[in-house]
Write a structure and sequence with these properties.
This protein has five helices and five strands. With 119 residues, the protein is of the alpha/beta class. One of its GO terms (biological process) is phosphorelay signal transduction system.
Amino acid sequence: MKILVIDDDDAVLNYIREILRHDGFNVLTTDNGSTAFEKLARNCDVTAVITDIIMPEEEGIEIIKKIKSEHPHIKIVAISGGGKMSPQSYLQLAYAVGADATLRKPFGHKELLNTLQNL
């Protein structure tokens, strides 16, 4: 399974990448939505995307909408630690626009892997 991870926080990006690689996943990463779509265009075998909701260049909600519109077969896991609203509010909005699953930061190794297995 090839997974694209989108998060503007390097620590979170590295954490997720290491967990997934350790468990045998092929992982692509990027820190913003624009390069995410470039990577998706070059890697048509991506089966899942993990995206943060709150990011400076392009919000995760817009990324989810666009992926679901252009690549409806790709499963999406939205992640959030909150911001101006509670993390749960952002994650509910992510579900409403097409996310297949959500995780509230911080999350653990097992929680991430269980979420991916249940997609």
